[in-house]
Amino acid sequence: MKKWIVMLAMLSLLTACAQTPEPESAELTELPAATSESAEPEGTSVPVQTAEPTATPEPTATPAPTPSATPAATPAPTPAPTPEPTAAPTAEPAPAQTGMSYGAVPFDLVAGTEQWWSIDSSDSAYWAVQENINALRAAGGLAPLTMDGGLSAAADARCESFVAGGPFDHSGMTTRSEICAAGPLGSASAVCTGWQGSPAHYANIMESSFTSMGVGCWFCQTAEGQYTYWVVTFN
Q1: What is the SS3 assignment for 191?
Q2: What is the DSSP string of 130-162?
């Protein structure tokens, strides 16, 4: 069963912050100062010189390179907390149809809403219409009709046009044939009994060339009473 109200859902955006990688510290190695020593080889005699000895200049030490300061590591920015994703609101599922007779329109589920609702393949009334029509065809020696989703969509659209105030006749028919009903017809059995008692509608049900069908029903319950539109389409 469907209620024709559209719900919108908002999705929130997720943000993420990139981290700046920390640079590795470079290691600097000091070079040792160069040294010079005058060493006489062992076991070698040095002749005596008469002249004043020339002083050996002191070796000049090679200055050690001045190490450059190791750059301090740049701290990585603290990422902002990622917000939790907000779940989109979901429509509350319709309550199960418990304690309701098979094939009945579920008026008690929509009591007090004063909104138009429609049945679909999750409602027993949808399938009960097919069973009632095929029972009539079987009694007349005809093959059963299969349920067709496209024909059901067309039947549903026809009911919607009636609810919107369109003419209650066959001028807007989009399929090969159709039968319609309106009134406080609260079950598949009630509407099919009404069609069986009408020669023109019964003739459509018993058309031997038809092989498939679709079902649509829109209903409403107000303080004044219960209302339904039914359409069965054929091909």
Answers
A1: helix
A2: HHHHHHHHHHTT-PPPEE-HHHHHHHHHHHHHH
Task: Enter the DSSP assignment of 109.
Answer: G
pLDDT digit string (tens) for 113-153? Answer: 999 999 999 999 999 999 999 999 999 999 999 999 999 99
Q: What interhelical angle do 188-196 and 124-139 show, nearest 10? A: 30
pTM confidence score: 0.59
Residue-level pLDDT at 159: 98
CA distances from 71 to 21, 30, 68, 224 (A): 14, 17, 9, 85
CA separation for the pair 119, 156 (Å, rounded)? 9
CA 219, CA 110: separation in Å to the nearest integer? 9
**Would you say the C-alpha torsion 94, 212, 235, 128 has a positive or negative sign?**
negative
